[in-house]
Design a protein that fits this description.
Helix content is 29%, strand content 11%. It is built from 10 helices and 6 strands; from the N terminus they run H-E-H-H-E-H-E-H-E-H-H-H-E-E-H-H. It has helices at 36-46, 82-86, 89-95, 120-138, 154-162, 188-201, 210-214, 220-226, 269-272, 287-297, and strands at 72-75, 100-103, 143-148, 169-175, 236-241, 263-268. A 6-stranded parallel beta sheet has the order 2-1-3-4-5-6, sandwiched between helices. Helix 4 crosses helix 5 (154-162). The two termini are 23 Å apart. The model is unreliable at 1-14 and 20-33 (pLDDT under 50).
């Protein structure tokens, strides 16, 4: 599948994806962690309180500015939670002047460490309610959604298509989105069988995961979602994808094709920063990815990506 960025409409400036020729600038990731290292540290920190909010998120008194009129709602991925997924990016967005919100969703047991494991359509209903809560608190016209894995792919896309979300979302930015499902490097059916067995003993951890099966290539949820094409009219989509992803495979499944009235930017990370080896888990902590997200949210003020060295392919 081609990775070129399609032309955009006149009202949506094209974000800057090119790497900068200048030396590496200070990281956009406030923690300056190495991708998966940052995720691992945040996961451990979330164990005592899996429902905690990442720094910079969930101030319901925040008032959007004229420069950033759309609150950003961060949507975590499967087997993750808001804190471990967004402790890198949430402070970056807040420091850039955004009102930032991050929900926890998709639990099969309250306060579980691993969330986003419930059926995707049910989780989409939770996202719908949360977006309404954010809009009511901020009095904004729409929100921007930024999600990782399931949270950047089929779950918010289900919300856009079947819960009326397209009227409430200014744009959707997906980091390693599981849009068209995964083969899990050819092991998806084995993984599903393992989850079935482990689910009985590991239910408190979310190992009985309907969401994982919903993201299997060819699942009924995927067939229903994409029966009418990939996109909703009026919604710009950005997909930030890495070749080293071994969770959502093949990585080209993460790209979308624009339908009528929609705009799609498919960004292959290695086309911007060829030596960035960040994989699926580490991408939300990658300063290069962080800058691509900032550029997508505010393309009129996009800045070049300085290509910080990210050598861990996880």
């Amino acid at each position: 599948m081609a990775t070129a960025v399609p032309a955009t409409s006149a009202t949506t400036p094209t974000p800057v994806y090119a790497a900068a020729a200048a030396p590496v600038a200070p990281s956009a990731n406030a923690s300056r962690d190495l991708g998966a290292v940052g995720f691992g540290a945040a996961l451990i920190a979330s164990v005592p309180d899996p429902d905690r909010s990442p720094a910079g998120a969930n101030d319901f008194t925040c008032e959007p500015t004229a420069a950033h009129p759309y609150p950003v709602v961060l949507v975590h991925g499967t087997f993750e939670n808001a804190f471990d997924n967004w402790s890198g990016l949430a402070p970056v967005l807040r420091d850039a002047g955004y009102c930032v919100f991050a929900l926890n969703y998709g639990e099969t047991k309250p306060h579980a460490l691993m969330k986003a494991v419930g059926p995707v359509p049910v989780s989409a209903g939770e996202l719908s309610a949360y977006v309404d809560k954010v809009l009511a608190a901020t009095e904004a016209a729409k929100v921007d959604l930024v999600g990782h894995s399931q949270g950047g792919g089929l779950m918010p896309q289900w919300y856009l298509r079947f819960y009326g979300g397209a009227a409430k979302v200014h744009q959707l930015v997906g980091i390693n989105p599981s849009s068209h499902g995964t083969t899990a490097t050819g092991l998806i059916h084995l993984l599903d069988a393992v989850l079935d067995v482990a689910g009985h003993a590991g239910k408190p951890l979310g190992l009985d995961s309907p969401a994982a099966k919903d993201q299997t290539i060819g699942s009924p949820v995927l067939r229903q979602l994409y029966a009418q094409g990939d996109t909703e009219p009026g919604v710009p989509y950005t997909n930030i994808v890495t070749k080293t992803d071994i969770v959502v495979t093949p990585y080209t499944n993460q790209f979308l094709t624009a339908g009528p009235g929609a705009t799609v930017h498919n960004i292959l990370l290695q086309n911007v920063c060829p030596l960035d080896l960040t994989g699926h888990l580490g991408s939300p902590y990658d300063p290069n990815v962080n800058q691509l997200v900032l550029n997508s949210l505010d393309p009129a003020h996009a800045e070049p990506v300085h290509c910080a060295l990210m050598p861990i392919p996880v």
